[in-house]
Write a structure and sequence with these properties.
single chain, alpha+beta, 8-stranded antiparallel sheet, 5-stranded antiparallel sheet, 5 helices, 26 strands, 15% helix, globular
C-alpha cells in the first residue's frame, strides 16, 4: 500500500511539472526593441487553452519555451474586491521579434521576486508611496491635510540603482530626525537617490485638475484609498477625492493609478463626476518650475519637462505625459504647467501615462527623455500581438 501511495505522489508531482500542449506566441509589430513590459492575457483564455479549472490558476508558471527561463507573472483584477480575471506577464521583445511562452502547473514554485512595492507611511502621517526598480512616487492623504499640508499633486523620488527604496528612505529620514542629523534626510543624496522634487500646490508629476479660464482648479488631498494589486509586477490602487467647487460646478474625482515593473510611467485613469454642466475640460498636468523647459514632442499626445530640482547639485528631473491619440487630448502650456487637456462628460474617464526620469540615472539628457516618451507612445499605439499555437 505504501509503495502504491508513493507511486501516486510521484505521478502527481510529474503532472504538476508537465508542460501543456498549447503555447502563447508574442509578436512585436515595431521596428524597435521593447524592454521590460507587462502584458495582459485574459485569465479565462489561459484556463480554456490549458484545460484548467479556475482553482488551478494560482499554480500556473510561465516560461520561455526556448530557454525555459521563468517569466514573472501575476494574477490581477481591475475591479475592486473581485477574483482575478487577467494573467500578467513581464516580457521583452526585440524589434519585430517573437517569443513563445509555455506553461506548467507547479503549486510549489517559488514566488516571483517583487519588482514593485508601495505602502502607507505612518512615519509621515499618511503619505502613500509606491515604486518599481526605476522610479518612486507619493501622494498625500487626509492626516497630512489636517496639518495644513494640502496638495493633490504627485511627488517624485529620484534613484539611480535598481533598488526598492521606500522603506530605507523613510527609515533613514526618521533616524535623522531622531538624532538631529540632517545628513540622513531623504532630501540628501546618499548615493542611491533622494527626494529633490518640489510639489507644493502644483500638480507635480501628473496630477489632475479642472481647467477653466486658463487656470487649474484642484482638489485637496485624497480621502479614501483602495488597493487593487500589490505585485510582484504590477502595483495598482484607487483614490477618491472629496467634492470641490470648480468654477461654480461641484465635482468629485476617482483616480486609478497603476505602476508596472520595467517602466518609468504610471498609467492613470481619472473619472470626474459633476452636475450642472454638459462637459468640463479636465487636465493631466506636470509642473514647470523656474528655470525648467517644457516641450510637446507630439502634439496632442506627449508633453515633456526638463525640470529643475530643489537642490541644484541634484542634476535635472525629467517629467512627462503621454496619451493615446484616441483620448483626443490637447497639449497646452498654461498656469505654470504642461498640460494634456481632455473634454469629458460626467462619469466619462480619461487615461494617460505620466512619470519621471533623472539626469543622474538613465535619462542623462532632455533628448533621451523625449525619445523615451515618444517610444512609449509608439508602444501604446502598437501593442504586443498575442496568439495561441500548438507546441
Amino acid at each position: 500500500m505504501r509503495i502504491l501511495i508513493a507511486h501516486c505522489a510521484i505521478a502527481l508531482s510529474l503532472v504538476s511539472q508537465a508542460a501543456f500542449g498549447q503555447e502563447l506566441v508574442l509578436s512585436n509589430p515595431l521596428n524597435v526593441d521593447r524592454s521590460q513590459e507587462v502584458i495582459e492575457v485574459p485569465l479565462q483564455q489561459v484556463l480554456d487553452h490549458l484545460h484548467l479549472a479556475p482553482a488551478q490558476a494560482g499554480a500556473i508558471v510561465a516560461e520561455d519555451a526556448a530557454t525555459h527561463r521563468r517569466i514573472p507573472g501575476q494574477l490581477y483584477s481591475d475591479a475592486l474586491d473581485t477574483p482575478p480575471d487577467k494573467l500578467l506577464l513581464l516580457v521583452q521583445l526585440p524589434a519585430h521579434g517573437r517569443q513563445r511562452i509555455s506553461f506548467r502547473i507547479d503549486p510549489n514554485a517559488p514566488k516571483t521576486e517583487a519588482l514593485v512595492f508601495g505602502r502607507e507611511a505612518p512615519e509621515r502621517k499618511d503619505d502613500f508611496a509606491w515604486e518599481n526598480q526605476q522610479v518612486a512616487y507619493r501622494i498625500y492623504g487626509p492626516a497630512l491635510e489636517a496639518t495644513g499640508e494640502i496638495t493633490s499633486g504627485i511627488d517624485v523620488w529620484s534613484k539611480r540603482v535598481p533598488n526598492l527604496v521606500i522603506d530605507s528612505f523613510y527609515k533613514r529620514d526618521a533616524e535623522g530626525a531622531r538624532t538631529h542629523n540632517p545628513a540622513l534626510s531623504y532630501h540628501k543624496d546618499n548615493g542611491v537617490g533622494l527626494d529633490s522634487y518640489e510639489v507644493g500646490k502644483s500638480r507635480g508629476c501628473g496630477g489632475t485638475a479642472v481647467f477653466a479660464n486658463g487656470k487649474l482648479i484642484v482638489s485637496n488631498n485624497y480621502t479614501k484609498l483602495h488597493m487593487l494589486g500589490d505585485g510582484p509586477i504590477r502595483f495598482s490602487f484607487e483614490v477618491t477625492y472629496a467634492p470641490w467647487n470648480a468654477n461654480g460646478v461641484m465635482v468629485t474625482e476617482t483616480k486609478r493609478i497603476t505602476l508596472d515593473a520595467g517602466t518609468h510611467l504610471n498609467r492613470i485613469e481619472s473619472t470626474y463626476t459633476f452636475a450642472g454642466a454638459a462637459t468640463l475640460d479636465v487636465a493631466a498636468a506636470i509642473a514647470v518650475h523656474e528655470g525648467a523647459s517644457a516641450e510637446f514632442p507630439v502634439d496632442g499626445s506627449v508633453a515633456s519637462v526638463w525640470d529643475t530640482p530643489q537642490t541644484p547639485s541634484a542634476g535635472r528631473i525629467a517629467t512627462g505625459l503621454v496619451a493615446d491619440p484616441k483620448q483626443h487630448a490637447k497639449t497646452v502650456n498654461a498656469a505654470g504647467h504642461a498640460l494634456l487637456v481632455f473634454t469629458r462628460h460626467s462619469g466619462e474617464s480619461f487615461t494617460y501615462l505620466t512619470g519621471s526620469g533623472w539626469s543622474k540615472a538613465d535619462m542623462p539628457t532632455a533628448a533621451d527623455w523625449d525619445n523615451y516618451l515618444k517610444l512609449e507612445l509608439e508602444m501604446l499605439e502598437h501593442p504586443v500581438v498575442t496568439r495561441w499555437a500548438k507546441r
